[in-house]
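Fig. S4 source data, part A: sequence.
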Amino acid sequence: MARLRDKVALVTGGNTGIGRAVALAYAAEGADVAVAWLAQEPAARSLVAGIEQHGRRALAVRCDVTREPEVRDLVRAVVERFGRLDVLVNNAGIQKAQPITQTSLEDWDRMMAVHLRGAFLCCREVAPVMMVQRSGRIIVLSSQLAYVGRANYTAYSAAKGGLSTFTRALAQELAPHGILVNAVAPGLIDTGFDPLPEEAKARHAASLPLARLGTPEDLVGAFVFLASDESRYFCGQTLHPNGGEIMP
């Protein structure tokens, strides 16, 4: 299928894990894809090659989404290269498991900055581009921890909870301009980067109705759907691919 034929997508944190899977899925559906990355440059280069293997144009830009000038330069580079911007995936994020008593102010501030300030800056910069087009899709990566929390993940849970509310507020603001804002809130996804030990992952998987952890590839259908015309009546909604752990 080519549900995103000739669309232009930007995926932040796109060179590894969930972002990488989404970027490749978008290319397979006919989109040109830009990815913002901060570390692991070889992974970014290989992703560009993977996108181009689908016959689509690709761009990789190093960007710290917490830095206003870098986000401005990122969006400018995408528009200059492709001429438009149809889809933004706010995927950039960090995770750190620690008790609240061991969470430093620096750790807390960094968690909020990457998730909340990063999403704010990216959305603020792409919104004018999409407003001129009178169309666009913004997809925010939230988490089921925005709804249930988890011990030792207070900062992460708070940041993701903020993103969920941010999504609903922004959806109301941008809908009159033809821009649809929605979110995906996965459960525990085995990306290879989660700090949980393997035995904890195994216990968690066994507790799920589907009895396994999710993979990045399990999520791409939700991201493709929300980026496509098929989601034209979805506004301020959150999809929950979590193996049945929570059923909101």
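Fig. S4 source data, part B ends here. Residues 8-238 form a domain with the Rossmann fold fold (CATH 3.40.50.720).
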